[in-house]
Amino acid sequence: MGACLGICSLLSCVSCLCGSAPCLLCGCCPSTKSSTITRLAFSIFLLMGTIVAIIMIAPGVEVGLQKIPWFCDTSTTIHGSVNCGVVVGHKAVYRMCFAMAAFFFLFALIMICVRSSRDPRAAIQNGFWFFKFLILVGITVGAFFIPNGPFTTVWYYFGLVGGFLFFLVQLVLLIDFAHSWSQAWLDRADEGNTKCWYAALLIFTVLLYAATIAAIVVLYIYYTKPGECTANKVFISLNLIFCVIVSIVSILPKVQEAQPHSGLLQASVISLYTMYITWAAMANVPDKNCNPTLLAIASNTSTTTGGQPVQWWDAPGITGLVIFILCTLFISVRSSSNAQVNKIMQTEESPAMLGGGDPGSEDGVHRAYDNEEDAVSYNYTFFHLCLLFASLYVMMTLTNWYMPDSTYTTMTSAWSAVWVKISSSWVGLLLYLWTLVAPLVLKDRDFS
Are 17 and 28 in contact (CB under 8 A)? Predict the structure, then answer.
């Protein structure tokens, strides 16, 4: 534990050097909005907590965790039967992520209805980083004193809900990214070299669709069998059909007329992400015949007498962590021009910035400047809720969405995780479809 918290002490060193915003970032970066720096700083808290959680399940660390008396005391657990080699890393990750979730939930409550940086609570959002760090450390230490009992099982279901919601956040961010990507390249095509930019758009669209088709083929080969795995076949086939539908809708003449920048590039990005979620769902199917990637930690034999460590890592989990890191950074620096995405993500451009100019680069000095005196550029509470969902998503990803049984002796891959992931892909596709047809349905609103 000391080593894990020692890593986080680097963050406190940065915090000690900062005033109302982490000025260390301002000294080496171009002039930056204070709102962006604040979001990056909170994201660093989340990423550092994630690193600590990863260390908790690293080989060798779980041996030390087993020595914590209250953490693996068989006399205080259900039926007096705990296989620490199986669940000790699992329980450590749950407690670390519980601490992060509680931290962001606290700030979500404090920041309700903050409208501008003139609100006294805005100073808490944009400053006091050292004290924030101490609060996070204190909650983390306290989380490891939570008794065993039903905590892990109850928090598993919280993780299911949070993971579901963060899947949707990821998809909205991908919609925003794909929209910005397409719009930027189409604008450059209008400025010159039209053929080159259109060719680049076509090449990337074809490559993304090719990757999507390859993913579908691989899923059918490895996660289905003749006469078996009916659920897997249905899930893969339905998502294939839904991806075809949204791709067709994205190029309909009326949709193109209402949204000239919509097209197959965005649809290809969403389709590939949908196939990733489908893959992640298949990796949680508890039937070994239909899931060749099912990990061996679902039994007492996962930790052998020879001291072999429990292996939590699999390809879907690693891919999920990479996507999580990219989305966390993107949500910290994003400034979307898509009105529908801004509505969903509770963000808008601050009126203070609409006049142009760069107030943070006067006299050639790089500094952070307050761009929220008239109105906030993002919803503080919603931002913290997104990080809360991200904390729960990390918790579920690091533990492969596996659930301990009532006796804490085995880990099981539950169908609940499969349904959460599949349903999130369906809701995500529905959200993307809504961003396409909203201007046609709500004709009295301005979506420009």
Answer: no
Average pLDDT, rounded, for the chain: 75
List C-alpha distances in Å: 185 to 177, 182, 194, 196, 345.
12, 5, 10, 10, 24
Q: Which long-range contacts (CB under 8 A, 24 or more apart) does 56-63 make?
A: 56/4, 56/89, 56/92, 56/93, 56/96, 57/89, 57/90, 57/92, 57/93, 57/310, 57/312, 57/398, 57/399, 59/309, 60/309, 61/89, 62/88, 62/89, 62/92, 62/309, 62/310, 63/307
Token code pair at residue 145 = 């004193």
b/e for 389-409, b at 16 or more Cβ within 10 A? bbbbbbbbbbbbbbbbeeebb
pLDDT under 70 in the chain at which residues?
1-34, 59-87, 117, 296-313, 333-375, 404-411, 444-448
DSSP state of 117: T
The model's pLDDT over 145-162, given as tens digits with 9 standing for 90+, comes to: 887 777 878 888 899 999
Instruction: Round to whole Å and give the CA distance between 419 and 225.
Output: 20
pLDDT at 162: 92
C-alpha to C-alpha distance for 94 and 239, rounded to whole angstroms? 31
Compute and round to an integer the Cα radius of gyration of the chain: 24
pLDDT at 71: 58
Output the CA torsion sign for 342, 418, 246, 273: positive
User: Residues 436, 271, 206, 257: what is their CA dihedral angle, to the nearest 10 degrees?
Assistant: 0
Q: Strand pairing of 402-404 and 411-413?
A: antiparallel
CB 77 within 8 A of CB 405: no
pTM of the full structure: 0.79
Q: Residue 243's pLDDT is what?
A: 93
Q: Is 226 exposed, middle or buried (0-12, 13-18, 19+ CB in 10 A)?
A: exposed
Tokens of 395: 């918790």
Query: Using one digit for the tens of pLDDT, what is the confidence trace for 296-354?
Result: 554 444 443 344 445 566 777 788 888 888 887 777 766 545 555 555 555 554 444 44
Backbone phi, psi, residue 310, to 5°: -70, 130
- CB distance 435 to 175 below 8 Å: yes
- State the CB neighbour count (10 A cutoff) for residue 109: 10
Residues in the chain: 448
Query: Nearest Cα to 378, choosing from 127, 63, 35, 143?
Result: 35
